Amino acid sequence: MKPLLKIENLSASVGGKKVLNGLSLEVNAGEVHAIMGPNGSGKSTLSYVLAGRPGYQITGGTVSFEGRDLTTLEPEERARAGLFLGFQYPVEIPGVNNVYLLKAAVNARRKALGQPEVDAYEFLQLVRGKMKLMQMDESFLSRGVNEGFSGGEKKRNEILQMLVIEPTLAVLDETDSGLDIDALKVVARGVNTLRSPDRGVLLITHYQRLLDHVVPDQVHVLARGRIARSGDKSLALELEKRGYDWVLEVA
Amino acid sequence: MSSPALPSNRDENWRYANLRPLAKARPDAISAALPPAGLALPPPLPPPLPGYERWVFIDGQVAPGLSAAAPNPFVSLLDFRDAGRELAQLLDSDLAQAGADFSLARINLQREGKVLHVSVPDGGEARLELNFVATAAASAGTSYPRVQVHAGRGARLRLIERHLSAGATDSAINAAFDLALASDATIDHCRLQNCADGASVFDTLTAHAGERATYRLRTVTLGGLTSRSTLFVKLAGSAARCELVAASIANGIQTHDTFAQIDHAGPGTTTRELFRGIATERGKLAFNGKMIVRETAHDADTDQSLKTLLNGSGAEASARPQLEIYTDKVRAKHGATTGKLDEQMLFYMLSRGIDRPQAQALLQWAFIEDAISHIELAPLRQEIEQLIAAQLNEVSALDGLVARP
Asked: Tens digit of pLDDT for each residue in B191-205?
């Protein structure tokens, strides 16, 4: 199988502090990988490094996405190439219409794929359908991006964007944190909708409970900036029972 | 007649204005040989707003062929000296003094000429659209637009004022507006300055509000090499209210400066002041919002929100709230910030595949929209939004961009 994302021996620092330290990981098309780990293990840093956030410095190793060197691309180029980051803390942008952002994002991706701009009517139909799936009221479309949204609404909006943009690889950074069980199920349904043989998902999570609803092909434990252990979904259950200390000791 | 001296940057209230272009302009009024040869008429104006009586002034003087054929009886062109006397009876002497203390207004007021005089009777209603088109170069003289407005008791006036250029790109304009609102009168005043990028645009405005009168001013400054607005509002009657919303975008080497003094004299008077300004490249912006709350103005309530955004290493901005309060019973809230584009917002948009220039334009758009959204008249707001989109240079499609609360 051709790897969608291939990370080899990746080291990265933030503000001069080394956070990732020789991380290697491969995600193939069609797979969902979960990354778990204690606070401060580098989970969010990994997501930001992949998305190209300024201030996250790669100090060693390689990252390739569908065979391309991801590290040489600007954040917007990564997105257009098919990488999507679901933010742990989605940003509020008052004054910019939610639906406008969605449309601009879709058109940016389509342009990169050599496709024409989306038809306004078709686009609205598409978005409405996805909003229904995410149990979001249509009034969210005309509001400022994430403006005044509750924590759960912001997370649902992230997944909505993902569903509309249809990325090849979605990196979801603690999308489950702060959600009640009903919202968690809605988010999980959204992620499951995206699953397909030609897409991959990297689920970064602190807790096992999301994985009851989005069943991963592989589970990795991140500790001290590298993958300390990998396994199938039973690893997540074991972590839930025994905590992270057990893995850290072994590592 | 000798001209009074121009203000100087040594004066604290004139520190940010760029006065040089005005000093270089020929101070006498442009002669009435209108229209200048070679100028295509009518000048490029937006379509008339439905229900509004249109007036067009070229280089400060009314252009009859382009203005309302059968003007409203409330509107007349008066000889300036007569108009001055008429308004002097309505205007508060302190305010007249405050206005006249600023020598720019004095330079304007000592000229011979006509003034557009608007007098809406008690309980009356009027809608006017005043378009000032500058066509002559500063070397040919200065435009002196002059408008006086009286809104009678309970009267309601909607006033739109545009300053535009056609022909020369370096015109000099020195405008004077005086407004008097009797008790319970309301004036909605929207002004747009979109002159050519080489123009010098100076204006002095005084407004005097009686009991429960409301003066709303929405002012958008986009054009001019240098632009300076000097605003004096006196809330004289009890429960009088002022809403001032100002937006400004200074690109290139533009300088936009506003001095707004709002004087609360009556009890229970209220002011809401909001400024949003963007300076890019080497643009300079200043907004000085001075609030005076007199001893008599107990229970006054003032709120100032002044924000500027810098995008460019040579851009400068100053947003300054100033409070002078002489009573204990007052609620005065103020906030002023000067910042750069929010990096987190920018990254969020980039991570959705949006181009950096477009993302920057969108953020600037969102910032200025805070002020523009206060323009209630939809066709005018859309006109201004189009101009801003063009100024931001990157927003290709406005469709659906604007988020409304």
From this structure: 999 999 999 999 989
CB pair distance less than 8 Å for B403 and A144: yes
Print burial letters for B45-61: b (CB count within 10 Å at least 16), e (below 16).
Answer: ebeebeebbbbbbbbbb
Residue from the list A54, A103, A120 with its beta carbon closest to the beta carbon of B347 = A54
**Total Cβ atoms within 10 A of residue A234:** 9
Whether residue B353 and residue A80 make contact (CB cut-off 8 A), yes or no, is yes
The CATH homologous superfamily for domain A3-250 is P-loop containing nucleotide triphosphate hydrolases (3.40.50.300)
Tell me if chain B has a CB within 8 Å of the CB of A124: no
Q: Is the dihedral of CA A204, A208, A213, A218 positive or negative?
A: positive
- Supply B111's token pair: 């000229």
The helix (run of H) or strand (run of E) holding residue B381 is helix B378-392
Residue B14's closest CA among B145, B107, B96, B102?
B102
Q: pLDDT class for B44, splitting at 50, 70, 90?
A: confident
Lowest mean pLDDT among A75-84, B89-98, B160-169: B89-98
Q: What is the pTM of this model?
A: 0.84
CA atoms within 13 A on the CB side of A133: 21
Among A7-21, B40-54, B87-101, B325-339, name the one with the lowest average pLDDT.
B87-101
Nearest CB partner across the interface for A100, out of B343, B345, B401: B401
Tell me the chain B residues in contact with residue A101 when contact means C-beta distances shorter than 8 Å: 349, 352, 354
| Average pLDDT of span A76-93 | 96
Residue from B274, B349, B368 whose CB has the most chain A CBs within 10 Å, to mutate? B349
Q: How confident is the model at residue B23 (pLDDT cuts 50, 70, 90)?
A: confident
B136 touches B166 (CB < 8 A): no
Distance (Å, whole) CA A94 – CA B402: 10
How far CA A64 is from CA of A9, A162, B350, in Å, comes to 12, 21, 20
Long-range contacts of B32-36 (CB under 8 A, 24+ apart): B32/B61, B34/B58, B34/B59, B34/B61, B34/B63, B35/B63, B35/B135, B36/B135, B36/B136, B36/B167
